[in-house]
Amino acid sequence: MLGPVENRSVSPVFVGRTDELDTLNDALARAAAAEPQALLLGGEAGVGKTRLVEEFATAAARHGAVVAVGGCVEIGADGLPFAPFSAALRALRDALPEEFAAAAAGQEEELARLLPDLGEAGAGRHDEQGMARLFELTARLLERLAAEHTVVLVLEDLHWADASTRHLLAYLFRTLRAGRLLVLATYRSDDIHRRHPLRPLLAELDRLRTVRRIELARFTREEAGRQIAGILAAEPDPAQVDEIYARSDGNAFFIEELAVAATAGGCAGLSDSLRDLLLVRVEALPESAQRVARIVAEGGSTVEYRLIAAVARLAEDDLIEALRAAVGANILTVTRTGDGYRFRHSLVREAVADDLLPGERSRLNRRYAEALEADPTLVPADARVMRLASYWYHAHDAAKALPAVLAAAVVARRRHAYTEQLRLLERAMELWDGAPEEIRSALRPVDYAEVYPPCGCDPATTPLRYLDLLAEAAVAGRFGGERERALKITKRALRLLEEEPDPLRAAWFWVQRSRLVQAMARGDGRQELATAQDLVRGLPPSEVHAEVLAVAARWSMQRRPGPEALADAERAVEYARMVGARETELDARLTLGGLTVESGEPEAGLAEMRQVLRDTRAEGMHQVAARAYVNLPSVLQSVGRDREAVPLLREGIEFCRDHGLLDSGAWMWGNLSEALYSLGQWQEAAEAAAHATRVGHGAMPRGAGALVQAHLALARGDLAEAGRHLAAARAWYGSHDPMPQQSLPVARVTLGVAAAEGRITDARAALLPALDAGFPPGTHCYGWPLLLAAATAEADARTLPAALPGRAETLDRLSTAVRTLTTGVPLWQAYGQWTRAELLRAQGRDTADTWSPVVTAFECLDRPYALARVRHRLAAALLAEGGDDERERAVELLRLAAAVAAHLGARPLADAVARLAQRARLTLTGAPRQTPADPAAALGLTSRERDVLHLVAAGRTNRQIAAELFISPKTASVHVSNILGKLGVSGRGEAAAVAHRLGLFAAGTLTAETPG
What we know:
By secondary structure, this protein is mainly α. Helices cover 66% and strands 4% of the residues.
């Protein structure tokens, strides 16, 4: 439990704020009931935000809550990255040491970026997900701490917050869903001008229904009178109250200042100037105390006693006497930690700082910097580098400031505070020309730069170049979301490289531009990559060369797979091995494995991808491992092995959760939803798709999740819902970079919705761009479903007069596409047969012989919905041919199709089956007169599912089944769920009854296990 919250107010009584306290106490009660709360408290400077928070925090602590307070720190104009979170986490660690250690276990290296007390922050490779990874781990840490304790996290003075703090706060407010946690953030509303960086965050948080915003109003005249009475310890004269209230306009802090001034000699002589009002008590201090106040004002929001002593250069007794005078006059107050001082109110500090002369300000900053250089222990270790950089910068000494600012940029990078790193690098660029040559020539890339590979140079002996700063800034901007600034930096770098040609550096910057234009939806990045490839062509192998080839191969794999992409991947692997770029090698090998599968060698490609996954996990290359967890299951799905992909995706999701790789996790949720849809597990597919749209920050995986939601809604007959999700998918994907893996599925769902609404012309319009573009190698897994949907729409619209114009041409083009699109594996061979059968149906030429091999093909696959659809088609063809045997077979096919449709909630299929049965005067209820030769195969059961059903029918539990078949209980449960869906039943007893009725197992083989 934290100690009592300090009281920094002059007034001994707390006045008003009943409604606001009620809101805060209600939020505390909700948080205590495990409903996380997020609140924003705004108000003008001096209105009483801090006092309200103090009262609430004290009451919360009395009720057993753990209160942790952190404030945004202002040093000049420089906020320390994550300062309020660092302070609050430190307080939580002090209050709950054992719980904190358990909650942070295994992630200390990463969390040390926020709380250096945990140890040395891990080096690791920086990437776009670095900040998100840290944010996710922080959220999980807070949720774990708040599992057993009610935790109140107070973050003060957001108007001073650095960008990283703002991003982390927004992430917490968006994602916290569990734990007894209340997060309260305060800010000055009068500081939030139109261009203030906090303004967009406030607008974003206002749109979240989970965030409550409190605006603190000024005091009424009655409340002002009660406050003055508390300060004076007597009832004030009404005229005096009127005068103070008029002058203060109800601002609590100004009321205090005026009331104190009144006791010192009346209000009449006071200037109307706000600054004069704030300075009046400072100027009444002894000269030594005024001098100390000026020193503290320039030192930052809080200043350590030993640092003040080093800068003031007063005898210790004189310094203590000066500080006592300032504290006694309520100008300064002791910090919470008891080792330093701060102004009682920031308005006074700002007034004192504004009153400094320009030369006086730079002199004080120099003294601070010199004192800190002479004794680094004067300030906490985690703040030392940043504060030294700020002091030297504001001392206007470029020779000292340049290395200090560069060192601060390195610290910001280590903390994943990329926006602050970018700001510091821009400051270093500003200082570059002003720093003496001997200072610049002594700087080394090994100390300050890491993103640009050495490429033959020794970073320990080669001087740091201005281009190195541009490279660091470009990547920091990309990682921190400041892409516009990063793009301008790459443009500046490439302009400099025109004057001093360096092909490798230029190629590296073109790769950065490619990534940026893709992320900013300004193009597909191909032209930039082509320029980079031209620049490295013919050059000896290097890390840059390998990276260019690897990025180009990955780009081609997603958009234009084929021999050229395969060759790029092979050369990237070769070059990376030659220069020892292990991470680039593994990344390129992963791409190579995927391209090998697409080239017709699935087993070789899959084996390579599995090996990469093993290697990256063993070597701690989490980013590439996460990509393997996305790509390997995706490739398995592309060859029809969805059931293999599902456990791998679930494993990958856990991996990403453990390492905070949110965007990669979102991709996996999207892929999982597609696999579960194919396997007939639609409810789980819908849940996975929803996760894909909520997890992470990337637009593409959200688009994939929305598209699966659209596909599900279409299959269930909810066209309005399908249209909404389809529009969301289009918005997430954008139109700047139409990759086949996105554009073809979007076209398929667009076509399906239009066809279901009877808009055959619009359906054809959705198809034509894909037919015009053709289907490059590797796109068959997206092309076949689209062609099937188009052929089905044409067949369904065969009798519609509106479908006649353009019909022959569409069918002809579809037939041509079907002849040219590759199959390769049983799944796409089955799709090819199905699509050709639909084209024959569109011409009225399909028969039972057309559909029988299609049904047979899908009976060997794990696609229950597809199997149900083709069974319905075969039943229709059998009924068209007539005959008792055909009718009997059709009844059984329709029963099976109806069972699957009912289980999945596929209303259009269920309605189609019912209409066909009604037209043929068939009764689908009751037992069939004859079972198929192999009923299990007809139901689409796999061999493993037959084994599980055998044991279910024998009365075994999931745990018993798992033990007998050497699988996990969770896997046994998944198998049972799949069996229930395929049999169209709702429980294990019904499944056993169906097994007995259809004679799936020989009599006497089903015996219940006897306990004991």
